[in-house]
From TrEMBL, chain A:
GO terms for cellular component: early endosome membrane; lamellipodium; retromer complex. Its main location: other. PROSITE patterns: PX. This is Sorting nexin-2. It comes from the Eukaryota. Involved in several stages of intracellular trafficking. Interacts with membranes containing phosphatidylinositol 3-phosphate (PtdIns(3P)) or phosphatidylinositol 3,5-bisphosphate (PtdIns(3,5)P2). Acts in part as component of the retromer membrane-deforming SNX-BAR subcomplex. The SNX-BAR retromer mediates retrograde transport of cargo proteins from endosomes to the trans-Golgi network (TGN) and is involved in endosome-to-plasma membrane transport for cargo protein recycling. It comes from Canis lupus familiaris (Dog). One of its GO terms (biological process) is intracellular protein transport. It is found in: Cell projection, Lamellipodium; Early endosome membrane.
Automatic annotation (TrEMBL), chain B:
Gene3D superfamilies: Arfaptin homology (AH) domain/BAR domain (1.20.1270.60), Phox-like domain (3.30.1520.10). One of its GO terms (cellular component) is lysosome. One of its GO terms (molecular function) is protein homodimerization activity. The gene is SNX6. Involved in several stages of intracellular trafficking. This is Sorting nexin. GO terms for biological process: cellular response to amyloid-beta; intracellular protein transport; negative regulation of DNA-templated transcription; negative regulation of neuron apoptotic process; negative regulation of transforming growth factor beta receptor signaling pathway; retrograde transport, endosome to Golgi. InterPro entries: AH/BAR_dom_sf, BAR_SNX6, PX_dom, PX_dom_sf, PX_SNX6, SNX5/SNX6/SNX32, Vps5_C. The keyword Repeat does not apply. CDD domains: BAR_SNX6 (cd07662), PX_SNX6 (cd07292). Residues 38-185 form the PX domain. Belongs to the sorting nexin family. Transmembrane segments: none annotated. Keywords: Protein transport, Transport. It comes from Canis lupus familiaris (Dog).
Length: 475, 418
């Protein structure tokens, strides 16, 4: 497959040409439509969006996922195509696009394109290069920030709106920097769409942050205490991490729904924002599967691999939970320490006041000040402990839960052998990517955390160094 | 300042524990540091050279070196238990002759209950944790036990040293008996009746204290001291409690590092990817940093919490002195009144005169020595605070620098790897 990676000579069209594309337009679909007329691809048959090939061997999965194979398919196919085709109807929309059964490369070569149009987005050189997974795949050149939580409305109908800012040089986006306002249910809607499209074919869709009725209610009724501000901040950070993780995923990045989420100023209100869990998908797919010919699952060697991975994830999950619990305890104790230090500082100040030896009195007041500053340090450290470490861990625990669900699903899927292989290949790749990401993520976070610890120690040194001469001055 | 030789811990609890990890830093050899002018004095040197902890009691070996003629030998040792220290202390308090002195506060009862409980719980929970975790926690708890042990030894020692350094108290007969008599002093702890009596005595004292302290003292010095001590004592009490809580939280946080380190270690060993080395390195870091944090907490405990606790007890002893002086003042004033009455009636005048004389002498004697004692108390206090605050700051700096280096080294390695 690596061979296919070469950007096809698209009739001298340089990547910059693609900037003409409007958002939401699917280069690919336009390609598809032109394929129809291309002589070199005799029978794409009908490639109308709605047609699910009856040659497909499996049930009609609700959504489809674009994987490398198909990218390559179109690499071949687009060879003869001019990009200036006038036909550029955006087939894309938020509606579930029709299914495309992933096919193995062998079937691709013959331009018997049995695959259909994708909800998958643009395939063109630059993005493909950017999507290179086996390669470094690090430079995604897209940055997402979630900021400025703002309460909109009143009472129980109120909600928090967050500003989602994207900075990117990817040309699939029309601008290099833009921002939109989104509310929490929008995030959930995005996740449910992505999950319904990609989960069941083996992609690890990052889980969305959890709903919290209590937390949100407090915010709604305008309880302006520190716990509700903390809640909002926690949520903002979680949403940011969620988006960052999602765009890091090369395939999801291509998803038009994601793009729409990031770019459109207006988003259709996601009504059914029950985040579809893997289990939900499973149920849905099973129902569809029942309606079609059943095939037996082909047990092959890949199962041993899956089992091993499953075990691995099981262990990892357990360890992470333990680690998470310990870190939470640390955060708690650190907060306690901070409170106790503050109390001591006050007490020491009082003691200094009543001490009738002047120099000692002064030194005690100084001590009180030092302890107060240290209390601040502890608070900041607790903050760092929590946000850097704890949240990451809980994200990962949930991520692993999502992965486990896929694997469970995988074990139950009833599809044809080819599809099975395809999905299992996808899953393997996903798992590999997940593990690499995990490694990187952990390393980054832990290093940042250690750096925060370094800072704390440096501050401590400063404070005590300032205090020492005061203590020595007691005569 | 000599250190205690390694205290021995009873066999039951401490199999395999040698003098233990160097839990306490060298600087903190006992609470002697709290009383800075207990210089070695050839005439009389007292220390606790050994101690043995058994199930429910601690046996201290009190070692004396003296050139005084009062003793049969120049150097000798006896074994004493906590109750005998209390007996000695109480005998000072009850001695009228010593009314004008600040009686060195009695050492607190050795209390290993909490620590023992923890060790027991650990033993029970052995099955539920990994071998490494168990070993780690056991070491920790043993270190804690050892620290408490060292502290109680130090506190008993300080009491003796204070007595030995006091020009009058060091000559006390009971003290000599305590030091020299190599049999059991047979002082049982107070029984219920005696404890009740104490309770009432204290109650009366505080009731009295209210009355007595209402009277403004003609002497400015004492008036100031009284106001000062009342307030100071309360604030030291508060600071001591808060300091305790602070050092305890510090220790809890340090313990958490332990668990995190263990989890990371487990992750590092079960993982097969290249992150495994990473985890192991970070786990090692957490282990080391935890040790430092635990030391910080222990040092804070010694230099700050213990200092405050000690001066809580000393300021109480000073208050007691003031109370005794006030009492004798009241007695003196009453004797004056009685004398006037007697003179008026011309009855029992001589008796009244004698009585008044005695009261006057007593009051003046107490006042004189009390003044000196209170001045000394201040000197001692300032010096002790200075020493401990300086040492606290120096230790905090040392540990913070150590921590910093540890973290920076680790970061260098981790960043180099990636």
């Amino acid at each position: 497959m690596a061979a296919e990676r070469e950007p096809p000579p698209l009739g001298d069209a340089k990547p910059t040409d693609f900037e003409e594309l409007e958002d939401g337009e699917d280069l690919f679909t336009s390609t598809v439509s032109t394929l129809e007329s291309s002589p070199s691809s005799p029978e794409p048959a009908s490639l109308p969006a709605e047609d699910v090939s009856t040659n497909s061997n499996g049930p009609k999965p609700a959504e489809v996922v674009l994987d490398d194979d198909r990218e390559d398919l179109f690499a071949e196919a687009t060879e003869e195509v001019s990009l200036d085709s006038p036909e550029r109807e955006p087939i894309l929309s938020s509606e579930p696009s029709p299914a495309v059964t992933p096919v193995t490369p062998t079937t691709l070569i013959a331009p018997r394109i049995e695959s259909k149009s994708m909800s998958a987005p643009v395939i063109f050189d630059r993005s493909r290069e950017e999507i290179e997974e086996e390669a470094n795949g690090d430079v995604f050149d897209i940055e997402i920030g979630v900021s400025d939580p703002e309460k909109v409305g009143d009472g129980m109908n109120a909600y928090m709106a967050y500003r989602v800012t994207t900075k990117t040089s990817l040309s699939m986006f029309s601008k290099s920097e833009f921002s939109v306002k989104r509310r929490f249910s929008d995030f959930l809607g995005l996740h449910s769409k992505l999950a319904s499209k990609y989960l069941h074919v083996g992609y690890i869709v990052p889980p969305a942050p959890e709903k919290s009725i209590v937390g949100m209610t407090k915010v709604k009724v305008g309880k302006e205490d520190s716990s509700s501000t903390e809640f909002v901040e926690k949520r903002r950070a979680a949403l940011e991490r969620y988006l960052q993780r999602t765009v890091k995923h090369p395939t999801l990045l291509q998803d038009p729904d994601l793009r729409q989420f990031l770019e459109s100023s207006e988003l259709p209100r996601a009504v059914n924002t029950q985040a579809l869990s893997g289990a939900g998908i499973l149920r849905m797919v099973n129902k569809a599967a029942d309606a079609v010919n059943k095939m037996t699952i082909k047990m092959n060697e890949s199962d041993a691999w899956f089992e091993e991975k499953q075990q691995q994830f099981e262990n990892l999950d357990q360890q992470l939970r333990k680690l998470h619990a310990s870190v939470e305890a640390l955060v708690c104790h650190r907060k306690e320490l901070s409170a106790n230090t503050a109390a001591f500082a006050k007490s020491a100040a009082m003691l200094g006041n009543s001490e009738d030896h002047t120099a000692l009195s002064r030194a005690l007041s100084q001590l009180a000040e030092v302890e107060e500053k240290i209390d601040q340090l502890h608070q900041e450290q607790a903050f760092a402990d929590f946000y850097m470490f704890s949240e990451l861990l809980s994200d990962y625990i949930r991520l692993i839960a999502a992965v486990k669900e896929i694997e469970e699903w995988e074990a139950k899927v009833q599809q044809g052998e080819r599809d099975f292989e395809q999905i299992s290949k996808t899953i393997r790749k996903e798992v590999g990517r997940f593990e690499k990401e995990r490694v990187k993520d952990f390393k980054t976070v832990i290093i940042k955390y250690l750096e925060s610890l370094v800072q704390t120690q440096q501050q401590l040194i400063k404070y005590w160094e300032a205090f020492l001469p005061e203590a020595k001055a007691i005569a | 300042v000599r250190a205690c030789a390694g205290p021995r811990l009873g066999a039951a609890m401490m199999e395999g524990l040698d003098d233990g990890p160097d839990f306490l830093s060298e600087e903190d050899r006992g609470l002697k540091a709290i009383n800075v002018d207990l210089q070695s004095d050839a005439a009389l040197q007292v220390d606790i050279s050994d101690a043995l902890s058994e199930r429910d009691k601690v046996k201290f070996t009190v070692h004396t070196k003296s050139s005084l003629p009062n003793f049969k030998q120049n150097e000798f040792s006896v074994v004493r238990q906590h109750e005998e220290f209390i007996w000695l202390h109480d005998s000072f308090v009850e001695n009228e002759d010593y009314a004008g002195y600040i009686i060195p506060p009695a050492p607190p009862r050795p209390d290993f209950d909490a620590s023992r409980e923890k060790l027991q719980k650990l033993g029970e929970g052995e099955g539920s944790m990994t071998k490494e975790e168990f070993t780690k926690m056991k070491q920790e708890l043993e270190a804690e036990y050892l620290a408490i042990f060292k502290k109680t030894v130090a506190m008993h020692e300080v009491f003796l040293c204070r007595v030995a350094a006091h020009p009058i108290l060091r000559k006390d007969l009971n003290f000599h008996v305590f030091l020299e008599y190599n049999q059991d002093l047979s002082v049982r702890g107070k029984n219920k009746k005696e404890k009740l009596e104490d309770f009432f005595k204290n109650m009366v004292k505080s009731a009295d204290g209210v009355i007595v302290s209402g009277v403004k003292d003609v002497d400015d010095f004492f008036e100031h001291e009284r106001t000062f001590l009342l307030e100071y004592h309360n604030r030291v009490k508060d600071a001591s409690a808060k300091s305790d809580r602070m050092t305890r939280s510090h220790k809890s946080a340090a313990d958490d590092y332990n668990r995190i380190g263990s989890s990371l270690y487990a992750l590092g060993t079960q993982d097969s990817t290249d992150i495994c080395k990473f985890f192991l390195k970070v786990s090692e870091l957490f282990d080391k940093t935890r040790k430092i944090e635990a030391r910080v907490s222990a040092d804070e405990d010694l230099k700050l919490s213990d200092l405050l606790k000690y001066y809580l007890r000393e300021s109480q002893a000073a208050k007691d002195l003031l109370y005794r002086r006030s009492r004798s003042l009241v007695d003196y004033e009453n004797a004056n009144k009685a004398l006037d009455k007697a003179r008026a009636k011309n009855k029992d005048v001589l008796q009244a005169e004698t009585s008044q004389q005695l009261c006057c002498q007593k009051f003046e004697k107490i006042s004189e020595s009390a003044k000196q004692e209170l001045i000394d108390f201040k000197t001692r206090r300032v010096a002790a605070f200075r020493k401990n605050l300086v040492e606290l700051a120096e230790l905090e700096l040392k540990h913070a620098k150590g921590n910093l280096q540890l973290l920076q080294n680790c970061l260098a390695v981790l960043n180099g790897d990636t």
